[in-house]
Every structure is written in structure tokens, then in C-alpha cells.
Amino acid sequence: MKINKLIVLQLFAICTFCFSLTSFGQGQSGVMLDKIIARVDNHYILSSELEEMYNSYAANGQKAPEKCQILESLIINKMLLAKAEIDSVTVEDKEVDNELDGKMNYMIQRFGSEKNLVEAYGKSVDNLKTELRTQVKEQKIVEKMQRTISGNVKITPSDVRKFFNGIPKDSLPYIPSEVEIGHIVRLGTVTREQKDKLRNQLQELKDRAEKGEDFAMLATIYSEDVGSAKNGGDLGFAKRGAMVPEFEGAALGLKPGEMSSIIESQFGFHLIKLIETRGAEYHARHILLRPDYNKGTDMSSAVRVLDSLRVLIKSDTLKFAKAALDNSEDKETAETGGIIQDRNTGLGRLTLDASMDPALYFAIDTMKVGDLSVPVSYRTEDGRSAMRILWYKSKSEPHTANLRDDYEKISQIVLSNKRNHALEDWFKKAQGDVFISVEPEYKNCRILGLASGNDS
Question: Which SUPFAM superfamilies does the record cross-reference, listed alphabetically (predicted)?
């Protein structure tokens, strides 16, 4: 069996397309007749999935591969999920919920407002999140399986040079302008009025529960943690260290059946009810209320901090990277010295074109290399209001690829190729561990080297 290189590469992008505008819910597009076209153990692929994936390429301005290739990539995805079940590979609910919140906030920004999103699909945000949660969880499991399979792959400078020297000179790619942008982010402060309001609301719910109302029902109705609300606020068993310290400390201080006082964490305000403990694990429900970051946030403190940092950086008293590491509340970029990374490549260079975040694109359009902006408004991926200062670190001119300027980019290609080889080897071995069946109508496709309609 030889897996098409294009298909293997698609594995790293396939889940991104699951959240394209065409496949995000069904919206108002009408009812589609559906049927199962492939099965991998207990995982099924529907004809609607194939069509949505195919259409999503056009929605993202890309040429779609053949449907046989897309079907193969979907089956590979399901193979990873099936093997994850066999090998007991799982992801934490907290990780899924954080990713889901980020996806939803991105969609809300794309549509301009939560109201526009709801009107476009005829469903509430909570309903859309519920529908997407399974997809997000599968995406995280697939990513974890990929890391497990190819995470130990390494490359050397010799590998990179050999690959580059093997490219015909007239086939070297043309690299567009790229920029390095750093930012330091400070979150707005939730006002005392907002905090008091949320505490009072949770205290009222606690009073109702103490008078006999069912805690699980109250959580289902009022909790803003969508993932657990549908289960009555049930978070399942959590190991020590899995939850934020404020939550865990309060939960472990309870006896089974007891409710906590109102607890504040980075996610909002919690009312917790302990169900039981089991060794080093504990089982709890909670009701979460989040601040309204649009109406109840004070930016004055964030602006003061950023203004002070800007003065120190401009006077060369403090280096930007050090300032970001010690002060930025965007932890992901703080660890890279504030440099914003390309989510597709993981590199600290952003292509200067329409693919860039519009807010960032227009901000640096008025800046010169080396400039440091004044504090500007910023919305984090999880929807919180913030301020940030931007540093225009560098800009490269368009050029033909070369080892000196593009070593990092070329090394990523070499690493990706090696990982693909590791995945190919894994697929050869894993094929015998799972049941694969494809409908006869795809007889012209050879899925993973199998004739369609045959079972592995």
C-alpha cells in the first residue's frame, strides 16, 4: 500500500475544514438526503460529510481534490479515532471546551456579531456549540494520535540541505513578503458591579438549591459552561491538578453533597457541588456564570500598564521579549517573546496578504519596521476584551526561496515529509487492527489500497 502524499498532508488540515462556513451547521441550506458510505469500526462516514468537505474547498478559495481522495482522508481520520479507542488515547474535557470556545468566538467575529451568527443558522449559540463539540473532541484526539505516531521524528541540517539541493533551480518557490509581529496583551478588569451581580445571581441559585430545587436542573438552565450544562453541570471525575487551583481547592474542601461558596476563577464565577471522591479523583457539578466582557470591563489599568511598558521599551531600558514574557496575558505568545505565530506553520512569520487577521493587517499598514504602537483594543480568542501594543519587528521582501532566508520554512517541509513517512508506516500496520468497509458505488476508488466494497 502506498498512501497518496496529498492525502497524508490533508490529515493536518482536514479538521480545519470541519469548521468552514459551508459545513458549520446546516444553516438554511435545506434538508439533504443522507446515507452511510463508509465504516471504520464503530465510526461511520456519511455522504453529506463527503459533500460538505468537497464544497468547503471552494468556500475557502481552494481547488478541491478528487472525491476519492477526500473520502480516503476521511477514512484515515476515522482510522486514527478507532485506533485511539483501542489504545485508550483520550483528551481532557477542559481542553475540548477551550478549543470549542475559541472556534465559536472566531465564528462570531467572522459573522460580525453573535446575533448575526444565530440568524444565519437559525440556532442558538449553545445549540451550535453542542453540535460542534463532538467534532472538536474528535479533532483533538486525531491531533494527539498524530503526535503519538510521529512526535519523535527528528531532522538534521544535512537533511534540510539535501532536500533543498534536490529541488531544480527553475522550480524553487517564490516567497511573498512576510512579517514578524510581536504583541503584549493586557486583559480588561471586570468591574466590581459585574462581579457583585454574578455573585448575587449564584447566591440566589444556591439558596434555591438549599430549599430543595435540583442542582442539576439549575445547572442545565443557568450554567454558561455549555459542555457540562447539558449534563446538569456534571464534570465527571477529575484528577488532582486537572482543574484551576481556585476550583479544585474549593471542591476538595467539601464533603459529598455539600455546595461551595461562590468561587472566582479565570473562567468566571462558580457554584460547586461535590458528588463523591475516589482516591486521587473527585466528582463534582458546577454552575458557571461568565462576566459580560463587552459591557462590564474596565480598560484603564490595562492601558496604564502598557503605556509604562512602551516607555521603557522605546527608551531601550527594557527589551520587548522580556516585557512580553513577564507581562503579557496572552500566555501562548508570551513564551515566544510576544511574537505572533502562524497557526498553520507554527512559525513566527506571517504572510503579508489577505490571509492575515484584518485587524492586524490594517494596524501595521500605518507602521514602519521597528515601530511600537500605542495601546489598541483587542479581543482574545476566548472573547475577552483586552488592550495590546504591537511591535513591527521585521519585514522580508518577496524573493525566490533560499537556505539563508528560508531555512526554518524549508526545515518544516522536510520534517513534515518525515512525519508523513512515519504515518504511512503506521497505516500499513494499523489497517489490520480495524474493520474498514466502503460502499460499492465507490468501486473506482482504491481506498488505502483496498478495492471498494471489500472489508479489511
Answer: FKBP-like (SSF54534), Triger factor/SurA peptide-binding domain-like (SSF109998)
Q: Which fold has domain 192-289?
A: Chitinase A; domain 3 (3.10.50)
Contact 388, 186 (CB under 8 A): yes
| pLDDT, tens digit, 9 for 90 and up, residues 88-106 | 888 888 888 888 887 887 7
Which DSSP state fits 155? -
Percent of the chain scored above 90 by pLDDT?
37
Which H or E run contains 58?
helix 47-59
Question: What span, in angstroms and rounded, lies between the C-alpha atoms of 20 and 23?
Answer: 6
Q: What is the CA radius of gyration of the chain?
A: 25
Instruction: Give the whole-angstrom CA distance, residue 28 versus residue 30.
Output: 6
Residues pairing with 43 in the sheet: 40
Predicted confidence (pLDDT) per residue in 148-178, tens digit: 888 788 999 999 999 999 999 989 988 889 9
Domain boundaries, the chain: 5-156+406-451, 177-188+299-397, 192-289
Tell me if 177-188+299-397 shares its fold with 192-289: yes
Q: How far is it, in rounded angstroms, from Cα 296 to Cα 199?
A: 14
Give residues with Cβ within 8 angstroms of 120, minimum separation 6: 27, 28, 111
Strands (DSSP E) contained in 112-244 are 174-175, 178-187, 189-190, 234-239
Q: Is the pLDDT of residue 116 over 80?
A: no
Distance CA 402, CA 431 (A): 40
Report CA 194 to chain centroid distance, whole Å. Answer: 28
Cα gap 190→193, rounded to integer Å = 8
Q: Name which of 448, 6, 392 is nearest 178 in CA terms.
A: 392
Residue-averaged pLDDT of the chain = 83
Q: What is the pLDDT of residues 41-51, one digit of tens each?
A: 988 898 888 88
pLDDT at residue 6, rounded to an integer: 36
Name the CATH topology of 177-188+299-397. Chitinase A; domain 3 (3.10.50)
- For residue 10, pLDDT beyond 50: no
pLDDT value at residue 321: 96
In CATH, the architecture of 5-156+406-451 is Orthogonal Bundle (1.10)
